[in-house]
Amino acid sequence: MQLKTIAIDDEPLALSLLSDYISKTPFLEMAGTFDNPLDAIDFLSKESVDLILIDIQMPDLTGTEFV
User: Fold this and answer.
1) Could you tell me where the DSSP H helices lie in the chain?
2) For 29-50, what is each residue's pLDDT tens digit?
3) Which of 18, 35, 39, 61 could crosslink 7 through cysteines, CB 3.0-4.6 Å?
């Protein structure tokens, strides 16, 4: 079973590293990456995921507020 996963981070390098790690993990399936948590909210209103990897400090909405 694979876990459908998204990553949310406002830093491009961090988002790229997360995406790379997810692609190398056999039980994770990358469903999307987002540099803005508001875009992720829109995605989640249409799709369901099993796992969200999220940055805590972001400008528009913190990871804690998002969760």
Assistant:
1) 12-23, 37-44, 63-66
2) 999 999 999 999 999 999 999 9
3) 18
